[in-house]
Amino acid sequence: MAGTKETFSDAELISCFMNNTRTDAALRFMYRDHFDLLSRYVFNNSGNEQDAEDIFQEVMVAFINLVKAGRFRGESSIKTFLFSLNKNIWLNELKRRGRAVAREEKYERLNDHKELTADSIMELRQAKNDLMKLIDELGEACKKILLLYYFENRSMKEILATLPYENEQVVRNKKSKCLKKLEMNVSTNKALYRQLKNYLHG
Q1: Are residues 137 and 88 in the same domain?
Q2: Is the pLDDT of residue 34 over 80?
């Protein structure tokens, strides 16, 4: 395509996002100017192309939110700031994945004492399905909190960002109530209760 690609100084970028003007052009410039550097960090630390794209999107959203909240003070260049954001977000994602893998491995180990016959595999699968149905019945808020916390290993801070609660303590209290209600609902089914305890690590 003919024509010179538009460029922005750091101050101009901040102005665009603060005033919500020319944001599309500003984002295109940031992608051209910073994606290669940020994606290389992800590639060099166990990530792939899709990871790099996803993390870059998260970095952009986080950066724009910080600018609009007046929390980017220009003490470093945007390039340096984005690199730091990219690094922190990706390392947190790797930790989350590690926790998820560890949880699943422990769940599998807790069931290793059973001979893996077709019947036992079906029993485990049915128990998971039954748990999901019971979680569904707790309501949308409980379902979201329990799935994000126990099955996706999201932190309280991450969960708070998806729900209309005041702070992390409110989310923590809600999670505790939801879990107690779920435990009460499965307490009469010993096999299902055991599976719940195994998967949620007590």
Answers
A1: no
A2: yes
Instruction: Give the pLDDT confidence score for residue 78 in this predicted structure.
Output: 94
Q: What digits encode the pLDDT tens for the residues 42-96?
A: 999 888 999 999 999 999 998 998 898 888 877 889 999 999 999 999 988 888 8
Total structural domains within the chain: 2
CA angle 127, 132, 137 (to 5 degrees): 125
Q: Which of 63, 96, 129 is the last residue of a domain?
A: 96
Torsional sign, CA 175, 162, 100, 115: positive
Instruction: Tell whether 135 and 162 lie within a shared domain.
Output: yes
pLDDT for 129: 76
With a cut of 50, say whether residue 100 has pLDDT above it.
yes
| 136 vs 147: CA distance, rounded Å | 10
Q: What CATH number has the domain bearing residue 41?
A: 1.10.1740
Burial annotation 57-90 (CB, 10 A radius, 16+ → b, else e): ebbbeebbeebeeeebeeeeebeebbbebbbebb
Q: Of the candidates 8, 25, 6, which has an alpha carbon nearest to the alpha carbon of residue 79?
A: 8
Structural domain range at position 188: 115-200
Q: Establish if 192 belongs to a structural domain.
A: yes
Residue 5 lies in a domain: no
Q: How confident is the model at residue 112 (pLDDT cuts 50, 70, 90)?
A: low
Evaluate the CA torsion angle 165, 162, 93, 34 in order and state its sign: negative
Give the side-chain half-sphere CA count within 13 A for 2.
Answer: 0
